[in-house]
Write a structure and sequence with these properties.
414 residues, mainly alpha, four-stranded mixed beta sheet
């Protein structure tokens, strides 16, 4: 049944999809327009051929984003107003009572699995066509399938019990179920952050201590200067999946650790690795991890509060093409449509993230070398084929890191 909320949903979906397409097309045009000249900031460090490769790589990824955006919008329409979700509800009702926790668990799980399967072709194309074409892919089909199976197993072991708990609270905890659910979801998020470095990532990668004695000495001095203790500094075998280089900080509390990709350690000199590590330490010492967690918890609180007001509103279900109004259906519908209504929060979140990157850079320059960090960043831009000339509006909307030229210019004037 079409009602006023149907039109609200269609407008939100249309605006979000149109904006995604418009931004991607802007990115393509802007990158192509600057393809034939290396920006002055990088003229001495990055050859024209590498710059053009980065441009072509960026354009290829942007075209895939366009195709994915169109497909995802179409599938969301089919799932909701097209009646596919209603069909799934009926099919699972043949197995479980329609208002039971088990029906809700099966319904939500099957919808999420279906979405993952339909997104699989784009994932395969990204890895085995785009990444392969530009020389980054090292993933084998066997490794891809193993990763897929491990991810599915983790989702089942960790995600299904969480889903069952939330559905039980929705039924048993009264009008304030959403507050209790928020506590459970928040606790799970903290728990996952604690086990991620020591239990989750080792299922997918091997980690080993840094072997280079010169680098170890520099790192130990840096950690002493920063007053940092962790469960260790590790090199990860990222090269078995991709030649991209990276570093990251993971964990929470006593489980925190710093991870360097082997591709990064093999490419950068010890002073450059030290500078990159100082940047990652900055994220921790400036409380970016805990602030990010607090922001995530605040967001989930607001979302669950809104859902708590919608579960007993018939217009919410009917407006999205569903006649069966159960708590689990409300949860699934909310999960499906919220990204369209919150899409325009992206620029604010990206701005916040870029601010944190600048702060971590500033921390690194106080405890290491700004010049070495700039050199390391330029090498990473080159090796990862990161575009040096993103469309400003696209970058402002999506990019979690500052534009290359802005970031390097700031480091060079420090």
């Amino acid at each position: 049944m079409i009602n006023a909320f149907t039109w609200v949903f269609l407008i939100a979906l249309g605006l979000a999809t149109a904006t995604r397409l418009w931004l991607a097309l802007r990115q393509i045009r802007h990158v192509r327009a600057h393809r034939d000249a290396v920006p002055r900031t990088f003229a001495e460090a990055i050859p024209l051929g590498a710059h053009q490769k980065a441009a072509d790589y960026t354009v290829a990824k942007a075209w895939l984003v366009i195709i994915e955006s169109l497909f995802e919008a179409l599938f969301l329409l089919v799932l909701t107003l097209g009646g596919l979700l209603e069909w799934l509800i009926v099919q699972w009702a043949r197995v479980f009572p329609v208002d039971s926790i088990w029906h809700g668990t099966a319904l939500i799980s099957s919808a999420l699995v279906l979405m993952q399967l339909l997104g699989l072709p784009a994932t395969l194309y990204r890895i085995f066509v785009i990444e392969e074409r530009f020389g980054f892919n090292r993933m084998t089909w066997k490794l891809f399938m193993l990763d897929l199976l491990k991810s599915a197993a983790l989702a089942t072991i960790l995600g299904v019990p969480l889903l069952i708990t939330v559905l039980w609270l929705m039924r048993a905890a009264g009008d304030l179920w959403w507050a209790y659910a928020w506590v459970v979801v928040g606790g799970f998020s903290i728990f996952y952050m604690m086990i991620y470095p020591t239990f989750i990532t080792p299922l997918f990668n091997k980690f080993s201590p840094v072997a280079d004695p010169v680098l170890v000495d520099r790192i130990e001095q840096l950690l002493a200067r920063c007053g940092f203790r962790s469960k260790g500094l590790f090199v990860m075998d990222g090269s078995k999946r991709s030649s991209h280089g990276n570093a990251y900080f993971a964990g929470f509390g006593a489980s925190k650790r710093i991870v360097l990709f082997d591709t990064l350690v093999g490419r950068l000199q010890p002073p450059e690795v030290e500078a990159v590590l100082a940047h990652e330490l900055g994220h921790y010492k400036l409380h970016h991890i805990s602030k990010g967690l607090a922001l995530s918890l605040g967001y989930s609180f607001v979302m669950l509060l809104i859902l708590g007001q919608l579960v007993d509103k018939p217009w919410f279900y009917e407006g999205l093409g569903v006649t069966t109004s159960t708590l689990s259906v409300a949860l699934l519908l909310f999960m499906l449509v919220v990204p369209e209504f919150t899409f325009f929060l992206h620029p604010l979140l990206s701005l916040y993230s870029r601010k944190r990157e600048f702060e971590a850079d500033a921390y690194a320059t106080r405890h290491s070398s700004a010049a070495e960090l700039a050199k390391a960043m330029v090498k990473l831009y080159h090796d990862n084929a990161a575009t040096l000339t993103p469309d400003p509006l696209y970058s402002a909307f999506y990019d979690s890191h500052p534009p290359a030229a802005t970031r390097i210019a700031r480091l060079r004037t420090t």
